[in-house]
Specification:
The structure is a single chain. The chain has a seven-stranded mixed β-sheet, with helices on both faces. It is of the alpha/beta class. Helix 2 crosses helix 3. The protein has helices at 27-30, 36-44, 60-67, 81-92, 127-136, 155-164, 198-203, 212-226, 232-244; strands at residues 50-54, 73-78, 101-105, 119-123, 146-150, 167-177, 180-189. 38% of the residues are buried. It starts with 26 loop residues before the first helix and ends in a 5-residue tail after the last helix. It has a domain at 27-195: 3-Layer(aba) Sandwich (Rossmann fold), CATH 3.40.50. 35% of the residues lie in helices and 19% in strands. The structure holds S-adenosylmethionine (SAM). The site of S-adenosylmethionine has 15 residues, from strand 2. Residues 54-57, 77-80, 83, 107-108, 123-125, 133 line the site of S-adenosylmethionine (SAM).
């Protein structure tokens, strides 16, 4: 089976045998014209949340959550002035009832104070950077109890980091858009420290019934193959996993 791989990144090219090229978008987000990737982030934000989108860029996510009346607070934070200016210009001209999107120029979670928000979203940049931002400003100390994460790379290390610090992975979803897959990870704070095995950190809480998990595990296998001997043990576990979970679609 031929795979074109983007090694070490969360997005990957699906094998030709998988016909799913665009995940379904729940109607409540489809009507706002969100694509599958952003819709899976929106679905991770509970109704009535006070949310902050860290690294918001275009601010499409807080915009839709606010316009849909889904959240009580919609905060978009980015360190790029240009991106915020463009988002502000777009949002200023749109009248809608309910909460307005607040756009803040800032670095990570640095401007947040206790109890301002209860849910933080981070998407579109690497897991290592996410760890850095979370380490500098631990979200649980700000009253944040839910994280919705979609890193472009380094998801296993991010899962491990957060599990060790009292975050529980409650659900994960793979969505694909234009033949690229993305994993959205939802974590809640319960204060229980967990040590994930290497295999657990690779698989997370993606359902084994998810056919795209097979493609994700193949990407990981290729990544491990490039790491040579030091990855031998984990590679054997992934090979065993793949042998027991054949591609069914
Ligand atoms: C590729 S965009 C992702 C936009 C959006 N979250 C999405 O998933 O479509 C990444 C954004 O993260 C912002 N960013 C990177 N590091 C940041 C930091 N330390 N604090 C705030 N924003 C940051 C960048 O300026 C950029 O606008």
């Amino acid at each position: 089976m031929a795979f074109s791989l983007r090694v070490g990144v969360v997005s990957f090219i699906l094998p030709a045998r998988i016909s799913v090229c665009r995940s379904e978008v729940p109607p409540q987000w489809g009507c706002w014209r969100l694509g599958p990737r952003l819709a899976s982030l929106a679905s991770g934000v509970p109704k009535g949340a006070r949310m902050a989108d860290i690294g918001t860029d275009h601010a499409l996510l807080p915009e839709v959550l606010a316009r849909a009346g889904w959240v009580e607070r919609a905060l978009g934070i980015d360190r790029a002035e240009d991106a915020l200016r463009a988002a502000r210009e777009r949002l200023d001209g749109v009248p809608w009832p309910g909460v307005r999107v607040e756009l803040w120029l800032g670095d990570g979670l640095g401007l947040l104070r206790a109890e301002m928000v209860d849910c933080a979203v981070m998407a579109g940049f690497g897991g290592r950077k996410m760890v850095e931002l979370l380490e500098r400003h631990p979200p649980e100390q700000l009253g944040i109890t839910r994280l919705v994460l979609q890193p472009t790379a380094g998801l296993p290390a991010l899962r491990r980091y957060l599990s060790r610090r009292g975050w529980q992975i409650v659900s994960e979803q793979i969505v694909c858009e234009g033949r690229r897959g993305f994993i959205t990870s939802i974590m809640i704070w319960d204060g229980r420290l967990r040590e994930l095995t290497s295999l657990e950190a690779l698989i997370g809480r993606v359902s084994v019934d998810e056919p795209l998990l097979f493609a994700w595990m193949h990407v990981q296998l290729q990544h491990l193959l490039r790491q040579g001997d030091r990855a031998r043990a984990l590679r054997a576990e992934v090979e065993k996993w793949l042998a027991h979970h054949p591609l069914t679609v």
